[in-house]
UniProtKB/TrEMBL annotation:
Its EC number is 2.3.1.269. PROSITE patterns: CN_HYDROLASE. The lineage of its organism: Bacteria, Pseudomonadati, Pseudomonadota, Alphaproteobacteria, Emcibacterales. It comes from Emcibacter nanhaiensis. Belongs to the CN hydrolase family. Apolipoprotein N-acyltransferase subfamily. This is Apolipoprotein N-acyltransferase.
Length: 540
């Protein structure tokens, strides 16, 4: 009886797996792409602020099984493309909100923009499907299921790396961000960056397929379970060990972050600019608060050309008193032989009203701060003249460490610039801390601001540098070198943060030293192991 039960337990997983495979095989092409789209939608809920990780146990296993039985390369590409389209469309819906705040374009066009972006980025996932189809043509589809999961995980994460680097890059909602709910799990980003957490996420997501495929072999089941425990417990305890360290602070550097919570329409309204400016001055008043040395305002905090308006800088100087410094974002313009150029800039103003530092945003937002030339022609051709009107922002010279009195050297990242792993510091002259000024008011209370804030925290872990984040409508925060939030102001709240500046880590993190090299080498090894194993298992 015991032996009979054991044999039943051994085959139950295989029977279930074969039923799922057969059910998938019986779906029509249309049904498969619709199911893939739905699976992609579900997978997007694993990101901030939901973190519904169990949905990954449905979405990615379905995609792998659906890809396994595609005979044509075009069908495999379509299945994976629709999965990616669903994930990106759901993950980027927050972008559509910004179109309702612009009078010169219709609000519905936001969904067209999100769909277009999702469609372009889904090409990366479609290519994964295409390569997996080529893989399956060479090996036994049944015997090589487990090795194929390794190859899929490696290819998927390489596609995310490519998405973050090619064609200006857009590394939003990378797989590793699914662990954003746990400070402990995020700490391994100090070793291999957020990209390195991608294979860990795939290992988690594909667990149901792993254990179903091994259900006929108890020894291998225990081995797989041991590997899972070793990986996830190891990463968790590694993170816990790092988080035992206390946060140290820089002496005599006190920050005040101002979050006025001015909505987007009021921010740019001509008749309210003066009131907004006065509001910032009032909230920044340091009288009665000792130890505040630097006031920080967010991206384009006031809509004045501060570098060309000494009268407004003198009002700021009066607010600062004898020894204060203001760090703020502002729009900047200049003229050359080609006409006027505008920049999304940062400025430091001292207590005498003089300019201490200037920085122009380099990594501009496509379609938000400039229209790529090809799409400008295309939008005009289909009649969307209003969508391409106005002057594009010009890019700055790149990341340069800033030096001003009273604070250690720092790097400035304007809004979206903080989302690029490995590209947030001057590599020739590393700063001691990072300042991220941003305006997420465009996106209301949707998922975008929460996801943006998480990426800011991960940059702190990767680089071992504290990040000070000033956002007009939130989330403003002081973040230490382990990605821990010391103080913050929630989304759509008004207030100030008074806080000392945290210190950087004494030693460089591995990621700060080696960048993505560790991730790339590890991923290529995973793909190689999967390919070799597939060849051997197919020949058994």
């Amino acid at each position: 009886m015991v032996i009979e039960k054991a044999e039943t337990a051994k085959t139950a997983g295989h029977i279930l797996l074969e039923k799922i495979v057969e059910w998938t095989r019986q779906r029509s092409s249309l049904q498969l792409v619709l199911l893939s789209f739905a699976a992609g939608l579900l997978s997007a809920l694993s990101f901030a602020p939901f973190y519904a990780l169990p949905l990954l146990w449905i979405s990615y296993p379905f995609l792998c099984l659906a890809l396994r039985d595609q005979k044509k390369k075009s069908e495999a590409f379509a299945v994976a493309w629709w999965f990616g389209f669903g994930q990106f469309f759901m993950g980027f819906l927050w972008i559509a909100n910004s179109f309702y705040l612009q009078d010169d374009v219709p609000g519905w066009m936001g969904y067209f923009a999100v769909g277009s972006l999702a469609g372009m980025l889904a090409i990366y996932s479609g290519l994964v499907g295409l390569v997996m189809n080529l893989f399956w043509r060479r090996f036994d589809r049944k015997r090589a299921l487990l090795p194929s999961l390794l190859v899929f995980a490696g290819l998927w994460n390489l596609s995310e790396w490519a998405r973050g680097h090619f064609f200006t890059g857009f590394p939003w909602n990378l797989s590793g961000y699914a662990w954003g709910f746990s400070d402990s799990m995020l700490q391994s980003a100090s070793l291999w960056g957020i990209y390195g957490l991608g294979p860990v996420t795939m290992l988690f997501a594909l667990a149901p397929l792993v254990f179903l495929a091994l259900s006929g072999d108890r020894a291998k089941m225990f081995l797989a379970a041991g590997i899972y425990v070793l990986v996830f417990a190891g990463l968790f305890f590694f993170g816990e060990q790092r988080l035992q360290q206390e946060t140290n602070y820089v002496e005599d550097v006190g920050l005040r972050l101002v979050q006025p919570n001015i909505n987007q329409r009021d921010k740019w309204a001509r008749d309210k600019r003066a009131d907004n400016f006065l509001d910032y001055l009032a909230m920044s008043d340091r009288r009665g608060k000792d130890g505040i040395t630097h006031i920080i305002w967010p991206e384009t905090a006031v809509i004045y050309f501060l570098d060309q308006e000494p009268s407004r800088r003198y009002l700021i100087a009066d607010m600062l008193g004898d020894d204060g410094v203001l760090l703020t974002g502002f729009p900047r313009r200049e003229w050359d032989r080609d006409g006027m150029k505008i920049y999304n800039s940062f400025i430091a103003i001292d207590s005498s009203g003089q300019i201490g530092a200037l920085h122009d945003k380099t990594h501009l937002v496509p379609f938000g701060e400039y229209i790529p030339a090809f799409f400008r022609v295309l939008l005009r051709a289909i009649g969307f003249e209003r969508a391409v009107g106005g002057l594009d922002y010009s890019p700055g010279p790149g990341q340069l460490t800033q030096y001003i009195p009273g604070t250690p050297p720092f790097g400035v990242l304007v809004c979206y610039e903080i989302i690029f792993p490995g590209e947030v510091v001057d590599p020739q002259n590393r700063p001691d801390w990072l300042l991220n000024i941003t305006n997420d008011a465009w996106y209301g209370t949707m998922t975008g601001p929460y996801q943006h804030f998480l990426q800011t925290r991960v940059r702190a872990i990767e680089e071992g540098l504290p990040v000070v984040r000033s956002a007009g409508t939130g989330i403003s925060a002081v973040i230490d070198s382990y990605g821990r939030v010391i103080k913050s102001i929630d989304l759509q709240k008004r207030g100030v943060i008074d806080q000392m500046l945290p210190k950087k880590l004494v030693n460089l993190t591995y990621y700060a030293r080696f960048g993505d090299i560790i991730f790339v080498i590890a991923t290529l090894i995973i793909i190689m192991i999967g390919t070799v194993a597939a060849r051997r298992w197919s020949s058994l």
